[in-house]
Amino acid sequence: MKEDTAQLKVAIPLKVLWKAMSIDIRHITPKILPNIVSEVELLEGDGGYGSMLLFKFCPDVPKVTFQREKIVEFDESVHYIALEILEGGHLDHGFLKYTTAFKLTEVGEAETLIDMKVLYETKPEHNHVPGDTLKATFLYLRSLENYLLKTLP
């Protein structure tokens, strides 16, 4: 498995960010990425470890209609969550395995450090540029930060 890692500091309190990225992910994602994700359906579970999510993409998103993901790691005590793509999405574009993990750490009252990691395996014929896996993750996190900043009291 290959691995891309990065860190990002956001101006959102840890508790607010954790709730948005874990418990509320299915409700918030279509709001923060309205031109990409039309709906997120909870297929199995309660939103915690083992839960299965179906991300439905907007018609304008090229070559992708859905992505089914499973929460494969979930530890609220250390604010760690990992989601593995099981079907669709990146797996339709040269990847054999694709897991995104987030570890949140409080940095003062109103900031959170996000350690992100993408573990992936590509098909032999797939020409992948290291670090490209993080582009979608950064888009998601920046969009989430902007949305939450507008909704914070």
From TrEMBL:
Family, according to the entry, reads as follows: Belongs to the BetVI family.
Name of the protein: Phytohormone-binding protein
Q: Which PANTHER family match?
A: OS08G0374000 PROTEIN-RELATED (PTHR31213), PHYTOHORMONE-BINDING PROTEIN (PTHR31213:SF64)
Residues in Bet v I/Major latex protein domain copies: 20-150
In the record, what terms sit under GO molecular function? abscisic acid binding; protein phosphatase inhibitor activity; signaling receptor activity
Q: Name one Pfam family in it.
A: Bet_v_1
A Gene Ontology biological process term: defense response
Q: Which InterPro entries match?
A: Bet_v_I/MLP, Plant_def-hormone_signal, START-like_dom_sf
A GO CC term?
cytoplasm
